[in-house]
Amino acid sequence: GEDVEQSLFLSVREGDSSVINCTYTDSSSTYLYWYKQEPGAGLQLLTYIFSNMDMKQDQRLTVLLNKKDKHLSLRIADTQTGDSAIYFCAERSGNTGKLIFGQGTTLQVKP
Amino acid sequence: SAVISQKPSRDICQRGTSLTIQCQVDSQVTMMFWYRQQPGQSLTLIATANQGSEATYESGFVIDKFPISRPNLTFSTLTVSNLSPEDSSIYLCSIPNRGLAGGSSYNEQFFGPGTRLTVL
C-alpha cells in the first residue's frame, strides 16, 4: 500500500541549513507537500511540488524531488529558531483530497 | 488561501458522550475532508464529505462512529460518537484549492486549525 517515511528528528544550529528527507512508495503520486506544525497549532502548507518537476524554490525553502528514487527533500536555508516545529511530508494520488502523511520530522533549532 | 475555521477549538468530554465539530470555509468548495491526528502521530483521513451525497469513509472508519453532515458548500460537521479515551485526538477539516500555478487541478490542500478532543 501507500507509505510515506521520514526521519523523526533533526537538530541544527541557527543560521545553518536544514535538510528534511522523505521517501514514498506510490509511483502514481501527483503532488507532494510539505507542512509545518508548531506546538498546539494546525498544519501550515509550506510548499508543494508537482510530480513532473524536480525542484522548486520559494524564498528560504527548496524542494527537491527524485521521482526515480521516490525521494523528496525540504531544505531550509539560514534556519531560524522560529523554524522549530514538526514538518510533515505528504503525497497525493490523482485529484482527490486524500493525502498520505509521513510521521513528521521534529526540527530543533539551537541558538 | 482559503480561511477555514473550526469549532470548538478544544473540548474535554466524558466517555460515552458525543462531540460534534463544525468546519466553516469562507468560499464554496465541492469537497471537504476530515482528518484525525492521534497524540504524537501523523494525520489519517477519516472521510470525504461531498455536498448533496453521503460521505465516503476510509478503511477503518464507519458512519455510525463518525457521522458527517454537509448541508452546503461552505460548512460541514463531524460527530465523534460514543466516545472512548482512544478517540482523544486532534480532528482537522481540510479543503483543496486551486493554487496560483494554475490549471484545473486542486493542487493546494489547506487545513483548519483543528479541534483538540480529550476523552476522560
Characterization of the model:
The complex is a heterodimer of chains A (111) and B (120). By secondary structure, chain A is mostly beta strands. Chain A has no helices and eleven strands. In chain A, the strands form two sheets. In chain A, strands 2, 4, 5, 9, 10 and 11 form a six-stranded mixed beta sheet that branches. In chain A, strand 4 and strand 5 (43-50) form a beta hairpin. In chain B, 0% of the residues lie in helices and 51% in strands. Chain B has no helices and eleven strands. Chain B has strands spanning 4-7, 10-13, 19-25, 31-37, 43-50, 56-57, 68-72, 75-80, 89-97, 108-111, 115-119. In chain B, strands 2, 4, 5, 6, 9, 10 and 11 form a seven-stranded mixed beta sheet that branches. In chain B, strands 1-3-8-7 form a four-stranded antiparallel beta sheet, with no helix packed on it. Chain B is globular and about 40 Å long. The model of chain B has no long low-confidence stretch (mean pLDDT 90). The interface between A and B is medium-sized, with 22 and 26 residues.
Helix count of chain A equals: 0
Q: Report strand % of chain B.
A: over 45%
Estimate the helix proportion of chain A, in percent. Answer: under 10%
Low-pLDDT runs of 5+ residues of chain B are none
DSSP helix fraction of chain B: under 10%
By DSSP, the count of extended strands of chain B is: 11
- Please report the number of helical segments of chain B: 0
Question: What is the gyration radius of chain B calculated from CA atoms?
Answer: 14 Å
